[in-house]
Design brief:
The protein is built from 14 helices and 19 strands. By secondary structure, the protein is of the alpha/beta class.
């Protein structure tokens, strides 16, 4: 009976459907789980002593697929099926569910029963949670924020019948005490972000939290860690700078599999910047942080062995590395040194503007007006020609079009003297003469420049540092892609690659 019940749980259609539900909780397709498991040494699944831990269970698919491999791998050592299942579920598989609901889903997916102490469980436990626990955790508030995850007290100080989203694994300084044991493998698809409060007009401000799960997992020092997380950490920002640095300098990071289009990993789910999964190996002994990087797009994959710490950011596309190296070899000053600060004039996106005033203001809805007394900074630029771009770098949340191409910059234009802008836009540079401004606009619209921007700008939001790979040119003349390709000695293969990645811009 146990055999039949256990086999029934391996229904790929059910969990594949769950994997397509929404962006709120991204469920992992079984196919991706098995790709992640394939990265591990397969002898782990032939040992009765290997322990596995998922600190963020949703459907239990990770533990389920591990159980599937262990049942096959341990058959020579433990021939009796029920004895083998009991050993695996009691001694080798452990998890923490992120909510009470996912604890029930996970137990049903793994044990074939939401209550593993009941008669329908394929392996009987003394408790109703088995080795997949869920414990309601309270946030620890200080000055209105949780000291562990940064959650807003206003948003998450809730009644006892509501989920707190205070995930047990990251709300402790001693994660090793949760199960009081060591694990060989930590594997998971952790929660990606947390709403930390209203951003006005009902919008929310979210902060990443997946980095906290990775950092906490490293503290446990398992032999292996593999997690699937958003790829935004490649470029840092939003509280991810220290995490990015720790990952790029970690010599134990042995493989990164990157999906620039999240739908190639999670069908039907758009995650700006894509997603990746990685393998961290505790005993990796390389003198430098050499790592295998796999680029996945549609049904194609590109492989390369790379030094992760070669650049200040992680260049996600393997083929782009040679292009960036050629450009940087000229040792020219880059645009990030001249791009003006965000909100140069101190006018945020919701600044009240009138129908008349001393200075015209470009905002997301068109043109408004304000008096000079409302302007906080940037006075020396008001009477100049200003080249500006939208602070939102991509169309369609950064996802490529059907041909795999991205636009990268959505707006590039000139503000005439006496016209300024809100923080919806970023001022690149200012000029006394309009022809130089026009030449900078032409330069920014080249595929060459927008390709270099794309190597840093992973998500939709652009900043000054996004221009760190873009060299400053002589703007007394216009520039074309052909001139730039020739100047930097790009091969035909490299120019074809740029042309295939970036959409034209009028």
């Amino acid at each position: 009976m146990a055999d039949n019940l256990f086999n029934k749980v391996y229904n790929p259609d059910v969990l594949s459907c769950l994997a397509n539900l929404s962006n709120d909780e991204v469920f992992t397709p079984p196919e991706i789980v098995n790709r992640m498991l394939d990265m591990l040494p397969q002898e782990l699944f032939r040992s009765p002593d290997t322990t596995f831990f998922d600190p963020a269970c949703k459907t239990g698919v990770f533990l389920r697929e591990i159980a599937r491999r262990l049942i096959k791998g341990l058959e020579p050592l433990i021939p009796d099926l029920q004895e083998r299942i009991d050993h695996i579920f009691h001694k080798q598989l452990f998890g923490i569910a992120i909510t009470e609901l996912t604890s029930l889903l996970s137990r049903r997916g793994v044990y074939c029963s939401k209550y593993p102490n009941g008669e329908f469980s394929v392996s009987r436990f003394d408790t109703a949670e088995g080795n997949i626990r869920y414990k309601r955790i309270a946030h620890t508030w200080k000055d209105g924020r949780c000291i562990y995850c940064g959650a807003s007290q206003k948003e998450y100080d809730r009644a006892s019948d509501l989920e707190t989203h205070a995930y047990e694994f990251i709300h402790t300084t001693t994660p090793e005490k949760i199960f009081n044991m060591k694990f060989d493998v930590i594997i998971s698809n952790p929660p990606y972000q947390l709403n930390v409060g209203s951003g006005g007009k009902g919008t929310g401000t979210a902060i990443p939290i997946y980095n906290l799960f990775v950092t906490q997992a490293k503290k446990l020092m398992p032999k292996y860690i593999t997690m699937i997380i958003p790829s935004r950490w490649f470029s840092g920002g939003r509280g991810l700078d220290s995490f990015r640095q720790s990952m790029l300098t970690d010599k134990r990071l042995s493989k990164i599999v990157d999906f620039s289009d999240s739908k190639d990993c999670f069908p039907g789910v758009d995650i700006a910047g894509g997603v990746c999964y990685f393998l961290w190996s505790r005993d990796k002994s390389d003198a430098i942080n050499i790592c295998e990087v796999v680029n996945c797009y549609k049904n194609q994959a590109n492989y390369a062995i790379r030094n992760l710490n070669e650049f200040p950011v992680f260049i996600r596309n393997n083929f782009a590395v040679s292009i960036v190296k050629k450009v940087l070899s000229f040792n020219e000053e880059t645009l990030n040194h001249i791009v003006k600060p965000v909100s140069l004039y101190g006018l945020n996106t919701n600044t009240f503007l009138s129908n008349s005033g001393e200075v015209a203001v470009r905002h997301s809805g068109g043109i408004g007006f304000c008096n000079r007394s409302s302007i906080r900074a940037g006075f020396e630029t008001i009477d100049k020609y200003k080249v500006y771009i939208s602070a939102a770098s991509y169309d369609h949340a950064g996802q490529p079009d059907k041909d795999g191409k991205r636009r990268v910059l959505s707006i590039v234009d000139i503000l005439k003297p006496q016209i300024i802008c809100t923080s919806t836009y970023i001022i690149i540079d200012t000029f006394d003469a309009i022809n130089e401004a026009q030449n900078l606009v032409t330069y920014l619209k080249t595929k060459f420049v927008r390709f270099l921007l794309a190597q840093i700008c992973i998500s939709q939001h652009i900043s000054r540092e996004t221009f760190a790979f873009v060299p400053i040119q002589d703007f007394s003349k216009p520039w074309t892609d052909e001139e730039l390709y020739k100047k930097y000695g790009l091969s035909q293969e490299e120019t074809d690659f740029i042309e295939s990645m970036i959409k034209p811009m009028e």
